[in-house]
Design brief:
Layout (H helix, E strand, L loop, with lengths): L2 H5 L6 H18 L11 E4 L4 H12 L5 E5 L6 H13 L4 E4 L3 H11 L8 H19 L5 E3 L16 E2 L6 E3 L7 H11 L50 H11 L1
Parallel strand pairs: 1-2, 1-4, 2-3, 4-6
Antiparallel strand pairs: 5-6
Amino acid sequence: MSAIDLHARPSASFAAKLAQTIELLQQAALDYAPTAPGAAPRITLACSLGAEDMVLAHLVNQLQLNIGIFVLETGQLHPETLALLERLKTSSRTPVEVFTPATEAVVQFVSREGKDAMYKSITLRKACCNIRKMEPLSRALAGKDAWITGLRREQSGARAEVPLIDTSDSKITKLNPLADWTWGDVWYFIAINHVDYNPLHDQFYPSIGCAPCTRAISLGEDFRAGRWWWEDETAKECGLHVKAESMTNQQEVSA
């Protein structure tokens, strides 16, 4: 049974949520339009190639919005994810930028800590995330005034208060157009719009990251239970969506 068969059940307010999402994306494209003809847009979509972000990429293309799209190719993605990336690059009206980690930093880390360092401690796992995700993210967002994510409040307790528009970072605004959407809403949109998606979703991977750090989940497990499953629930973020004050607290605790 496919993920569509299992999950494509829209909420009663789906139409209103979709309208809100479209309005937010269209307004964002206007608010963060290029400052000069031919210049890059000042807003970009962080596409993880998960179901939510494929919905957003589809909308950006369908609505022909002047919004960039980028993918962090960590060097540890599943073959299925890499194949989806190639399909997105081919089909997307908007060019898809791919950011990879600095080769030397990866080589030095693996040489020093081993290829399975992420399993040894939370500190090493986060160090790996920093090299493979956080540093490339800083390059992807350089010069941008806003970025878009597929965060939803339903995804986890840590994301339960995700706002549609997050201005907590004074340097860049984060937009979360799917904050109100349910998992059923996401898959209903995918079904009716024939949106391409990662086949790992059909194998009970609701949240897909790097291959060593992602597993399928069982019936009844939390949505993000397959991410860093060997760690305590409170640690299950790579840093991409942790607020600045939370990052400071984590660094103080680990120092």
